[in-house]
Amino acid sequence: MSKALFDFLKQCLTGDRLQRFDEVVNFRTRHLTVVLENIFHEHNASAVLRTCDCLGIQDVHVIESQNDFAPNPEVALGASKWLTVRNYQWDSEPTEDVVPNASVDCIRHLKRNGYRVLATSPRQDSIPISEVTVEKKTAVVLGAEQIGVSDAAISESDDLIHIPMYGFTESFNVSVSAAVILQQLTTLLHASNIDWQLTDAERDELVERWVRRSLGAKLEPLIRRFCDR
């Protein structure tokens, strides 16, 4: 999008909305990211997206090899509109040489992009969340309700982490787990000297996307009007 067109589109939004974009984008990060593996309860899916938006985590990776990811808009409160959600699905049948696995594909993609991948697991060899550091870019894998993170995802991950439990119940709801873990890691990140914010180019690209989405059905008519001037 040209600067002239972008400036024209911004004029169609209120000054308060544009100021809010500037405030929010300054706290967006790709240093932390989240992987949701086959989450099927729409309330949980929505709550995790809302948590990511509230904490400034821009990217969410969604694995749908077994269950469709269907957030409830009333719970998410439009969070997905502001996030970058990447979906991983396998529709092909396994062959003699290749067994498709969306979880493996997702985690290897993250590792190629410099992420340390942490899978949530109650296993005894997992690390308590209080001992996790964030010097390196970090991805947290959260598994499906009741089942947890798959064996394939655990095998591909760099480490396992858990939230210590002191009651009779063995685990939190997945949306609560996400909130506890991501709040802990975000707090560490903001207190560090790590350069965790987006680059100028990433900020500009994100604000442009937010402007487009805010205009909704008005976007295409406005673009035509600009081109016809």
Keywords:
10 helices, 229 residues, 45% helix, alpha/beta, single chain, seven-stranded parallel sheet
Structure explained in plain terms:
The chain is of the alpha/beta class and 229 residues long. It has a single domain (29-196), classed as SPOUT methyltransferase, trefoil knot domain (Alpha/beta knot), CATH 3.40.1280. The chain contains 10 helices and 7 strands. It has helices at residues 3-10, 15-25, 42-55, 73-76, 79-82, 102-112, 151-156, 174-191, 200-215, 219-228; strands at residues 32-37, 59-63, 84-88, 116-120, 127-128, 138-142, 159-162. It has a 7-stranded parallel sheet with strand order 3-2-1-6-4-7-5, with helices on both faces. Strand 1 (32-37), helix 3 and strand 2 form a beta-alpha-beta unit. The longest helix has 18 residues, at 174-191. The two termini are 16 Å apart.
Rounded average pLDDT = 88
Order of helices and strands: HHEHEHHEHEEEHEHHH
According to CATH, what is the topology? Alpha/beta knot
Q: For the CA atoms, what is the radius of gyration?
A: 19 Å
Instruction: Kindly state the percentage of residues in helix.
Output: 40-55%
Secondary structure tally, helices:
10
The largest sheet has its strands arranged as 3-2-1-6-4-7-5
Number of strand elements? 7
Major beta sheet, specifics?
7 strands, parallel
Name the CATH class: Alpha Beta
Number of domains: 1
Helix-strand makeup class: alpha/beta
Percentage beta strand: 5-15%
Q: What's the architecture, going by CATH?
A: 3-Layer(aba) Sandwich
What gross morphology would you assign?
Answer: elongated
Q: Could you list the spans in which at least 5 consecutive residues all have pLDDT below 50?
A: 94-99
